[in-house]
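Fill in residues.
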């Protein structure tokens, strides 16, 4: 029995790492497209096309599994989560355009720290001094990454921080309202909401997309859908408290992709600050596991 549990934990961790890998590849493809155009206004069209492909794949899967029900399609909490995710996506992609991968992912991964603070203030959860200390150290890590004395990328660092705030609210909604939905149902409505949201950007600034760009977008849709699939496998296979620390592997993938594809060299500040953010986040996850908070 113990061996079986350990095997499931190992599988869950593997799925989480694969999930982060495919998400990072997807982001790299989107960043590549944005840099080809050198125009952030193309973003609406790019994400709309990607969203149509991804939503169709997810929708067909749910339809054949008989999980695409009316309750799912008209759920206000699901669409509310999708709206929050859409706003988070806007700020994330702005950061993707203007920041190196390593810095972007480091600041974005402030979310677990913000979730702890948000849980205390919004959900009334009790947070002890150990976790508050980790929260403070996480914010210190942000200051080190940002390095206010030398804003190399201007105020673009605000984009992932704002995105992290909305991701926190998204996860708060998930914890509070969406326990009765299948993970892929949540992902489907989120994908649908984001696609509709970004369609307005496409309408306002439509540009012809050639075959090469479409292939990049199509591949990003495939990779993000595979990432979603592994995220669901992660949840179904092992406890979140076991797999969550490995969410930070996306920072490593980001640094590697940034270095080899976009010639981005991580700064000492970014590395030290990231380690503080990662350490604080992992401590919070393990502390919550110890005191019995598993969601």
């Amino acid at each position: 029995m113990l061996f079986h549990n350990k095997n499931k934990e190992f599988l869950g961790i593997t799925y989480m790492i694969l999930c982060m890998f495919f998400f990072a590849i997807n982001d790299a493809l989107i960043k590549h497209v944005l840099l080809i155009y050198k125009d952030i206004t193309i973003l609406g069209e790019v994400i709309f096309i990607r969203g149509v492909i991804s939503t169709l794949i997810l929708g067909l899967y749910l339809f054949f599994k008989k999980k695409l029900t009316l309750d799912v399609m008209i759920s206000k909490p699901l669409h509310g989560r999708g709206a929050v995710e859409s706003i988070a996506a806007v700020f994330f992609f702005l950061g993707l355009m203007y920041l190196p991968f390593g810095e972007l992912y480091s600041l974005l991964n402030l979310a677990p720290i913000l979730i702890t603070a948000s849980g205390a203030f919004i959900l009334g959860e009790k947070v002890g001094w150990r976790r508050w200390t980790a929260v403070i150290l996480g914010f210190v890590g942000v200051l080190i990454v940002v390095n206010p004395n030398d804003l190399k990328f201007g105020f673009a660092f605000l984009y992932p921080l704002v995105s992290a705030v909305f991701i926190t609210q998204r996860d708060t909604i998930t914890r509070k309202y969406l326990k009765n939905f299948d993970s892929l149902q949540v992902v489907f409505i989120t994908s649908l909401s984001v696609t509709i949201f970004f369609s307005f950007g496409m309408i306002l600034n439509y540009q012809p997309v050639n075959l090469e760009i479409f292939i990049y977008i199509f591949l990003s849709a495939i990779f993000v859908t595979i990432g979603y699939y592994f995220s669901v496998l992660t949840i179904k296979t092992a406890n979140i408290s076991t797999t969550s620390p490995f969410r930070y592997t996306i920072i490593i993938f980001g640094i590697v992709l940034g270095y080899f594809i976009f010639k981005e060299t991580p700064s000492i500040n970014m590395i030290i600050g990231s380690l503080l953010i990662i350490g604080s986040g992992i401590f919070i996850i393990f502390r919550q596991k110890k005191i019995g908070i598993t969601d």
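The radius of gyration is 19 Å.
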